[in-house]
Amino acid sequence: MLRELDIRNFAIIDALTVSFSEGLTVLTGETGAGKSIIIDAVHLLAGGRGSQEFIRHGAKKAEIEGLFSLEDEQHPVFRRLEEFGISWSDGDILLRRELNDKGKNVCRINGKLVTISILREVGASLIDIHGQHETQELMDEKQHLHLLDQFAGKSLTKSKESYTHTFDKYTKLKREFSSYTENEQQIAQRIDLLTFQLQEIEAAELVLGEEEELVQERKKLQNFNKIYESISAAHEAIQGESKGLDWIGSAMSELEHAASVDETFTGSSETLSSAFYLIQDTGTEIKRILDDMEFDPARLNDIEQRLAVIQSLKRKYGASVEDILLYHEKQTDELDKLVNRDQRYQLDQEKLKELTEDLRVEAEELTILRRKAAKSLGKAIMEQLQELHMAKASFEVNFSVLPNSRFDRNGHDAISFYISTNLGEPLKPLTKVASGGELSRMMLALKTIFSKHQGITSIIFDEVDTGVSGRVAQAIAEKIAAISVHSQVLCISHLPQVAAMADQHLFIEKKVDKQRTTTAVTELDGRERTEEMSRMLSGAEITDLTLQHAEELLSLAADRKLLMK
């Protein structure tokens, strides 16, 4: 649920912090008071399109922050956060968006900077906004299949995963088939190029680790004189006449004499004796190295040429010898496919036939499962529509096959919702026959069904009840309240029937402070709520009769809500 919303310098809002409760929160107030501005702020927070016009006049930037709390640790949004490397704790998710006067957006999730697309993806898992003229899923037939699959739930999941796996293999093989239909001249040119590249790499006879060894050997040869001079000087210092080893030998003899007289010096004598023989052996080893050292300019030249060859290949085929060898392996496979394309074509054609048949069988299984789910969905929607006083309406899910008998990631079904709103009228596409009020009721019927399965944290209705009254208004109020049993619902409404069902009632009003207009929010309870309900019922003047009517409406709503829980 959306626990708290903080808005700064947004439209006519100077600074506003609103806390929300579980269940149904209704926002009421005069037209133009700023109710929809709050919903616009939530829409931006969920990744909606921003504009500099949203920034309050005189401010540099608008800031919106929303804190969401989720109890379900398996909620899909947490998987998305993991994918984006965003941490969380205790089920809290903090969304933040800043819009500055230069048109730049700064988006954060739990303090981490993210792109607007990531904010939008995470926001879509948390917030579902429906405006008075927004019934996007219903008006977009492409979404009808998604809605049906969502309703089918686990009964379809395993089969759909199997189909998707087969479809991925099918599309991959189809892409490979495109290479078989290329121009013969292009194929011949490609074969020549690959042959040349592979021969060039093979001629070099590359060995892993070779380049590093050559670089080290080159370094030694380039510094041969310095190394030779240093080693010679070291040998002279150790074993030259009257040099280090002679002096250490003299010291060793003296200490041995002292130790023979006084055992105190025995340890020092033995240590120096060990050092003498160790240095003597080192001097002998250095002499051997000096005798073997020989500068070979031809070898240095060979190394330079070999490194030049490797460097040339790296510029063409990869950043390292390993990359070049991997490139060689990949291009060898491509050349083999091109040279033996006729044989491979036959083999792949057989594979494609098998995959196509597998895909057809699995797609048919999806269709069977969907038809079964469609009957249940149709029955459930009809029950909801009857409760919304559309008893004469008829609804069904229309099935057809994708054009040219093709497949896509969802199978080969083309799904669309058909409805007839009047008795005796034929069923027609929902997108073409439903009026605004009917679409609102259809949307509420679907939301009542899907709110149990969607996992959306907060559903927002922005005046979806406009233009209805009487029994329909009461039915819509009860449907919105029913949805709030499974998801938090925020609803802007002018209907007292809807407001009466609220678990939290927020009153939105304009105030003028220091010659500036701003929006304020007050949570109503007790007498204040009754008076607001009375105003909604009467339109203006509050009387004892309208107050009595408001109290009765609130009492009846409380009874209905108890039956829902």
TrEMBL record:
<dbReference type="GO" id="GO:0043590">
    <property type="term" value="C:bacterial nucleoid"/>
</dbReference>
<feature type="domain" description="RecF/RecN/SMC N-terminal">
    <location>
        <begin position="1"/>
        <end position="511"/>
    </location>
</feature>
<dbReference type="GO" id="GO:0006310">
    <property type="term" value="P:DNA recombination"/>
</dbReference>
<keyword id="KW-0234">DNA repair</keyword>
<keyword id="KW-0227">DNA damage</keyword>
<keyword id="KW-0067">ATP-binding</keyword>
<comment type="similarity">
    <text>Belongs to the RecN family.</text>
</comment>
<dbReference type="InterPro" id="IPR004604">
    <property type="entry name" value="DNA_recomb/repair_RecN"/>
</dbReference>
<dbReference type="InterPro" id="IPR003395">
    <property type="entry name" value="RecF/RecN/SMC_N"/>
</dbReference>
<feature type="coiled-coil region">
    <location>
        <begin position="345"/>
        <end position="372"/>
    </location>
</feature>
<protein>
    <recommendedName>
        <fullName>DNA repair protein RecN</fullName>
    </recommendedName>
</protein>
<keyword id="KW-0547">Nucleotide-binding</keyword>
<comment type="function">
    <text>May be involved in recombinational repair of damaged DNA.</text>
</comment>
<dbReference type="GO" id="GO:0006281">
    <property type="term" value="P:DNA repair"/>
</dbReference>
<dbReference type="InterPro" id="IPR027417">
    <property type="entry name" value="P-loop_NTPase"/>
</dbReference>
<dbReference type="Pfam" id="PF02463">
    <property type="entry name" value="SMC_N"/>
</dbReference>
<dbReference type="GO" id="GO:0005524">
    <property type="term" value="F:ATP binding"/>
</dbReference>
<keyword id="KW-0175">Coiled coil</keyword>
<dbReference type="GO" id="GO:0009432">
    <property type="term" value="P:SOS response"/>
</dbReference>
